[in-house]
């Protein structure tokens, strides 16, 4: 749907009106036959039709194009009243800047930000409403620290709330202790497995060293036996030499 033509100041050229809703073009598109439409209007039309609503020429969504630059400029220069004029806003600005103004307009009707409150209020009055809204959040006047979120909460039981809070804290503490316990057990188990693995490696290294030492001792004994044999042979040779 387009912009209500009654909002505009002065004459609006016929070529700037949507051929479907007959209001001033909003987010316009143009067909090859040069008829212009609001994007929402022409898309809705082409769901059930395949021709231009003005001259019945065949058109398709893929054939739609943005408005000619000069027409777009003429459209943006049009002056219109803020949509909140019925609430007292007297702003008149160009179509090009109307959206920016209306997003910030002090007369805009906006919802209260407090959960549960259904009041719609002008932006300029929002702060005053929030200060007295029955759904506003505030701390319990009895000092228990409970945050009152609605009118029904004003009758809350401080002792019950504190007991509930204590139970929650206790449960949270138990959970944290259990988590810390599981984490510590996991670390100890990991370290235990690492130590067992390390012990096994060291044991294998010790056995290998023992085996090497045993081979070395055997080699030493063989060398000593060979040395004795060699000495005996030398002594025998010396003896025979003397006899000769």
TrEMBL record:
<feature type="coiled-coil region">
    <location>
        <begin position="192"/>
        <end position="243"/>
    </location>
</feature>
<keyword id="KW-0863">Zinc-finger</keyword>
<dbReference type="InterPro" id="IPR017907">
    <property type="entry name" value="Znf_RING_CS"/>
</dbReference>
<dbReference type="GO" id="GO:0016874">
    <property type="term" value="F:ligase activity"/>
</dbReference>
<dbReference type="InterPro" id="IPR001841">
    <property type="entry name" value="Znf_RING"/>
</dbReference>
<feature type="domain" description="TRAF-type">
    <location>
        <begin position="101"/>
        <end position="144"/>
    </location>
</feature>
<dbReference type="Pfam" id="PF13923">
    <property type="entry name" value="zf-C3HC4_2"/>
</dbReference>
<keyword id="KW-0175">Coiled coil</keyword>
<feature type="zinc finger region" description="TRAF-type">
    <location>
        <begin position="101"/>
        <end position="144"/>
    </location>
</feature>
<protein>
    <submittedName>
        <fullName>RNF41 ligase</fullName>
    </submittedName>
</protein>
<feature type="domain" description="RING-type">
    <location>
        <begin position="18"/>
        <end position="56"/>
    </location>
</feature>
<keyword id="KW-0479">Metal-binding</keyword>
<keyword id="KW-0436">Ligase</keyword>
<dbReference type="Pfam" id="PF02176">
    <property type="entry name" value="zf-TRAF"/>
</dbReference>
<dbReference type="InterPro" id="IPR001293">
    <property type="entry name" value="Znf_TRAF"/>
</dbReference>
<dbReference type="GO" id="GO:0008270">
    <property type="term" value="F:zinc ion binding"/>
</dbReference>
<keyword id="KW-0862">Zinc</keyword>
<dbReference type="GO" id="GO:0043122">
    <property type="term" value="P:regulation of canonical NF-kappaB signal transduction"/>
</dbReference>
<dbReference type="InterPro" id="IPR013083">
    <property type="entry name" value="Znf_RING/FYVE/PHD"/>
</dbReference>
């Amino acid at each position: 749907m387009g912009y209500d033509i009654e909002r505009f100041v002065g004459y609006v050229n016929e070529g700037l009106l949507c051929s479907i809703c007959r209001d001033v073009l909003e987010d316009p598109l143009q067909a090859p036959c040069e008829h212009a439409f609001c994007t929402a209007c022409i898309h809705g039309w082409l769901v059930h039709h395949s021709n231009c609503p003005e001259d019945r020429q065949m058109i398709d969504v893929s054939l739609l194009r943005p408005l000619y630059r000069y027409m777009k400029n003429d459209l943006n220069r049009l002056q219109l009243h803020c949509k909140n004029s019925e609430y007292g806003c007297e702003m008149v600005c160009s179509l090009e800047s109307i959206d920016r103004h209306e997003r910030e307009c002090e007369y805009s009707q906006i919802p209260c930000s407090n959960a549960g409150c259904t009041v719609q209020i002008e932006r300029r009055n929002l702060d005053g409403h929030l200060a007295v809204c029955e759904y506003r959040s505030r701390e319990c006047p009895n000092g228990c620290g409970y945050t009152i979120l609605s009118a029904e909460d004003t009758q809350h039981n401080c002792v019950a709330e504190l007991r509930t809070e204590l139970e929650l804290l206790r449960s949270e503490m138990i959970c944290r202790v259990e988590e810390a316990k599981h984490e510590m057990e996991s670390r100890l188990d990991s370290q235990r497995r690492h130590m067992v693995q390390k012990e096994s490696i060291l044991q294998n290294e010790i056995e290998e060293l023992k085996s090497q030492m045993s081979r070395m001792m055997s080699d030493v004994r063989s060398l000593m036996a060979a040395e004795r044999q060699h000495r005996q042979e030398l002594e025998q040779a010396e003896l025979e030499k003397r006899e000769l």
